[in-house]
Amino acid sequence: MQKNKQKLGFFGPMKSFGSAETSFEKIKDGGFKATIVHDVMKGVKIDHLIWWFENIDKVTTFNGKGFDGHEIDSYKLWHPHDHIKVNWKKKKLNHEGKIMPGSKLAIKETFQGFLVNESVTVSQFDRDAFNFEMCFLGIKVAHLLHFYKEIEEGVIYKTEMLIKCNVPVIGKLLTWIACNFIATEKRIKAWMLHNIEESGESEKFIPQLFENHNTKK
Fold first, then answer.
1. Between β-strands 41-42 and 139-150, what pairing exists: parallel, antiparallel or unpaired?
2. Cβ 105 vs Cβ 120: under 8 Å
3. C-alpha to C-alpha distance for 17 and 22, rounded to whole angstroms
4. Which of 110, 116, 127, 194 is the one with CA 20 to 30 A from 79?
5. Rounded Cα gap, residues 159 and 9, in angstroms
6. What's the pLDDT tens digit per position in 147-162?
7. How far is CA 100 from CA 65, 95, 122, 136, 150, in A?
8. Contact 32, 188 (CB under 8 A)
């Protein structure tokens, strides 16, 4: 599906498109669905991923070997070519201080000429998944799901992007608008490569940031 040249990240070659199992389909009644089953995130644990998403907008001095480098946004380590900025716009916390559904994340990134600058709403955040919804005119038109399962080697990580509005009457119209002007087929396929690349970097720095954070406690 993608023939792009393999990129170099902060820690060496990034994952290629062929490293993951992918599918893209046009839904019969309108809409797009893209799924990615990533290569195993070796050495990563669910605790690492939960901590990472909670602290995705922080800074770090990690340089691949130690924590004596220049201070940069941690988000940049995930994808130095495409990531611009991310921040938690709104945090709904439970009694343990953990982020709950209803929290909002602002994401700014670019991939293959497409710019993303939007706010998403968390719909699930626990030990099974980190999911959020995208809205248009205040109505849900898409979701992005991240499922994870811990195994001996690391974490199995699956991503699903669905562009489809299910509200009565205007749902099909909003789906058509989204697929033809906002989340086009070309844009979704470009995002799939981006997602494979960033997810593949996870094993190279997230466990290290997690451990460094805990040693400072």
1. unpaired
2. yes
3. 9
4. 127
5. 21
6. 999 999 999 999 999 9
7. 33, 10, 7, 22, 21
8. yes
132 and 119 Cβ atoms separated by less than 8 Å: no
Closest to 195 in 3D by CA, of 149, 145, 159? 159
Q: What is the mean pLDDT of each run of 10 residues along the chain (217 residues)?
A: 73 96 95 98 98 98 95 98 98 94 98 96 98 92 98 98 96 95 96 98 98 87
Domains, the chain, ranges and CATH? 8-215 (3.30.530.20)
For the stretch 52-87, pLDDT in tens is 999 999 999 999 999 999 999 999 999 999 999 999
Task: Give the DSSP letter string of 133-167.
Answer: EEEETTEEEEEEEEEEEE-SSEEEEEEEEEE----
Q: What phi, psi does 29 have (nearest 5°)?
A: -90, 15
- 135 and 118 Cβ atoms separated by less than 8 Å: no
For residues 146 and 159, what is the distance between their CA atoms, to the nearest angstrom? 5
- How far are the Cα atoms of 18, 42, 45, 127, 188 from residue 122, in angstroms, in the given order? 29, 26, 21, 14, 20
C-alpha closest to that of 190 among 99, 74, 82, 73: 82
Structure tokens at 126: 């626990």
Kindly report the pTM of this predicted structure: 0.94
DSSP assignment, residue 19? Answer: G
